[in-house]
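Field notebook, page 191. I keep forgetting to write these up properly, so this time I am using the form the group agreed on. The chain and the ligand, thiamine diphosphate, are recorded exactly as supplied. Prediction of the bound pose follows.
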Amino acid sequence: MRGTVPIHPIWATHCIAAAKGDDAIVINEYSLLSRFAPFPKPRTYFGTPQAGGLGWGIGTAIGAKIAAPERLVIAVLGDGAYMFGNPTAGHLVLRALDLPVLFIVFNNSRWEEVERAALSVFPKGRAAQANRVPVADLGPEAHYEHMMAVYGGHGERVERPEDLPGALERAIRAVRVEKRQALLNLIVGHR
Ligand SMILES: Cc1ncc(C[n+]2csc(CCOP(=O)(O)OP(=O)(O)O)c2C)c(N)n1
C-alpha cells in the first residue's frame, strides 16, 4: 500500500493514525478506514451517525474544537463530504473564533459510495460502461488546498505516498504551534 499512486486510503489512514497522537479528536465522515486506526482512548473518535446526511463533518469538527479548544481536532472527509459541509462558512467561523482545526480531504474526485451503489444495482448498466460514472463524478480535480490561502491557513496538496508523513507533521505543527487551521488535499485512489 505504501507505494501505491494515487495514495491508497489504507496508507493514508495508517499515516494519520501514526501522526495524530492518542489525545486527538478525530471526526470521520466516511474516509478514514477506522479498522486500520486504533483509538485507545474513549471519546477520541466520532463517525457519521446513522441519521447524518452528507456534510455533517465540518460542523461537527467546529463543535468539537469549541468544546475542547486545547485538543488537536482532525476532520477526515471525502471530497464530497467536504463540499457538502459548507466549507467556506466553516473555515470563516474557525478563523473568526481563532480555533484551528486540521482538515484532511481524501480527494478521489468522485462520490465513490454512490458509484459503488450504482454499479452493484446495475452491474451492466450505462454507468458500468462509462469511464467516469455520471452523477458520481466530481471531476475535474479540485485544488482544495487553496482554501487555506483564502482563510489564512496552511494548505498542502499531497500526491506521493512518501510525502504524506512530512505533510502531516507540517500541518499538525501549523495547527498546534502556529494556531492556524490547515488542510491537506490528499489525492487518493479507490478504497
Ligand atoms: C444529504 C445527503 N445526500 C446524499 C447522500 C448520499 N451519499 C452517501 S455517501 C455519498 C458520497 C460521499 O462522497 P465522498 O465524501 O467524496 O466519499 P467517497 O464515497 O468518495 O469515499 C453520498 C452522496 C447523503 N448521505 N446525504
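OBSERVATIONS:
- The helical segments are 9-20, 56-67, 79-84, 87-97, 112-121, 126-129, 147-151, 164-176.
- The CA atoms of residues 29 and 87 lie 14 Å apart.
FOLLOW-UP: compare against the apo run.
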